[in-house]
Amino acid sequence: MRFAALSAHRERLGWAGLIVRVVLAAVWFWASLSKIGDPRTFVQAVRAYDATPEWLSQAIGYGLPVLELVLAILLLIGLITRYAAAVSALLFVVFLVGIAQAAARGIKIECGCFGGGGQSSATSYTLDILRDLALLALAAFLIRWPLTKWSVDQAIISSEMVPELTPKQAKLEKNVRRYRAARAAAEVELRHKQRYIAAGTAVAVVLVSFVAIGVQGSRAKIAPNVDTANATTATGVKVGNQQAPVPVDVYEDFQCPICNDLEQSGLTKDLDAKVKATTIKVNYHVMSFLDSLSNGNKYSSRAANAGYCAADQSPADFQKFHDILYGKTSGKNNQPAENGNGVPDSQLIAWGKQAGITSADFSTCVTSNQHKDLVAGVTDAASKKGVNGTPTVFVAGTKLGGTNDAVTVAQVDNAIQTALSKAKSTAAPSPTASPSATSRAGTSSSPSAAVSPSASGSTKK
Predict the structure, then answer these.
(1) Which pLDDT score is estimated for 446?
(2) What pLDDT is recorded for position 120?
(3) Among 134, 143, 120, 148, CA closest to 12
(4) Please, what is the Cα angle at 431 between 426 and 437, to 5 degrees?
(5) pLDDT at 440
(6) In which residue ranges of the chain is CATH 3.40.30.10 found?
(7) What is residue 182's predicted lDDT score, i.e. its pLDDT?
(8) What is the pLDDT of residue 454?
């Protein structure tokens, strides 16, 4: 930036640029601080776009909030404003592309720009796009007119300026020549200084971003040894005979109203009957990503923790507790209303007693949030598998429904029947076995020669 840019810079543009700088800085501060405290959740929000490989999702999830914070600081103090605005513009374009591709593919998610994120039944893509376009226009303003009032950039230029000649000094030609030479030398020095500052700041930003990815990645790690005898991060709560031929994986959130609708429509009874008949085994993955819908009460994560506390007693106790949380008392839903106050721990303990759990260990487990890391692990494992909303159901490894389609009991039942038929056909002996093959296998007709259901009924997961 030359001295002429400072002297000729109009007053109104300088003040306007200051306002634009502060607005963009405030946006980046808000975006960063809403996400930087919970890196695991933001990575899950990035995965919900289903547009990046896992390594890139983690890099974005861990690094972007820190980059946003750095941009906020640079814009607030007005240092390398044009470069900060250019990076801001690039990010806004990336955000627009991400939102547009999600909308085009019919993926209903919150953008996660200011915390939260993930699947949502109420999207606002139009508002998100209009907001990002407006911010892109502000960034473009600073790219075009980067020199603003009260900025470090302006102070750097002022530090190198050569004092103007007085009218008396300007009358002498030698003074004018000296002034022009000094000004030219100062401009060269200014350009060098600006380049060094820009390069040094850019290197610092890159280093900080890489360090942040490592630090945030460490913060997002799930504590070791969180699995219990009846629940793991990979399987959730294992219910039923584990030798049953058809595995069913149910991903739910106790705060999810659609989960509540599905359970009350008969899913529990349908699955329970098939579990008792040893037709299926069910893995209940109780997730937590809807804490924001309980007015800060964090019902989603606390209820999930309580569910795993019930599983500590037995899978059967978990089933009873699970059904109560998705059930009704005196004709009224036990699930708290969405965006309402979640029930306290005392109510979760009371529902445990209703399920027949009277152990003091259960109460302590609930109040101490003993399985919070298990809840986080199950949620993160589900996110890695592409489960970004609830309810989600897999039967024999196949996901039911479309991207945003609600799963029905009939779909689950039909999928189970299809998987069971495949398992039975796999278990049946081959009708084309040749006599020579039989003689090679031996002529014994003992039970050990028969194909056992447990050995042959395995299915792809």
Answers:
(1) 38
(2) 61
(3) 148
(4) 105
(5) 38
(6) 231-419
(7) 78
(8) 35
Give pLDDT, residue 284.
95
Distance, C-alpha 344 to centroid of its chain: 26
Cβ-based neighbours of 225, under 8 Å, separated by 6 or more? none
CATH class as words, domain 231-419: alpha beta
Provide the 10 A C-beta neighbour count for residue 438: 10
The alpha carbon of residue 48 and the mean position of all alpha carbons in its chain are separated, in whole angstroms, by 7
Q: What does the alpha-carbon distance between residue 304 and residue 322 come to, in Å, rounded to a whole number?
A: 10
pLDDT at 445: 37
From residue 20, how far is each of 83, 134, 140, 146 by CA, in Å?
15, 11, 10, 10
Nearest-angstrom CA–CA distance, 1 and 3: 7
pLDDT (0 to 100) of residue 139: 96
pLDDT number for residue 401? 73
How many Å is the Cα radius of gyration of the chain?
31
Is the backbone of residue 232 left (phi > 0), alpha (psi -120 to 50) or beta? Answer: beta
Instruction: Give the per-residue pLDDT at 459.
Output: 35
At residue 38, the pLDDT reads 86
Residue 22 to residue 33: CA distance in whole angstroms: 16
| Neighbour tally for 242: CB within 10 Å | 10
- Ranges of residues in the chain with a pLDDT under 70 are 1-10, 116-123, 402-405, 427-461
User: How far, in Å, are 110, 238, 268, 458, 461 from residue 397 at the CA level?
Assistant: 27, 15, 20, 12, 4
pTM of the model: 0.74
3-state secondary structure the chain: CCHHHHHCCCHHHHHHHHHHHHHHHHHHHHHHHCCCCCHHHHHHHHHCCCCCCHHHHHHHHHHHHHHHHHHHHHHHHCCCHHHHHHHHHHHHHHHHHHHHHHHHCCCCEECCECECCEECCCCCHHHHHHHHHHHHHHHHHHHHCCCCCCCHHHHHHHHHCCCCCCCCHHHCHHHHHHHHHHHHHHHHHHHHHHHHHHHHHHHHHHHHHHHHHHHHHHHHCCCCCCCCCCEECCCEEEECCCCCCEEEEEEECCCCHHHHHHHHHHHHHHHHHHHHCCCEEEEEEECCCCHHHHCCCCHHHHHHHHHHHHHHHCHHHHHHHHHHHCCEECCEECCCCCCCCCCCHHHHHHHHHHCCCCCHHHHHHHHCCCCHHHHHHHHHHHHHCCCCCCCEEEECCEECCCCCCCCCHHHHHHHHHHHHHHHHHHHCCCCCCCHHHHHHHCCCCCHHHCCCHHHHCCCCC
CB within 8 A of 135, min separation 6: which ones? 24, 27, 88, 92
Return d(Cα 96, Cα 90) in angstroms, integer: 10
Cis amide linkage into residue 391, ω under 30° from 0: yes
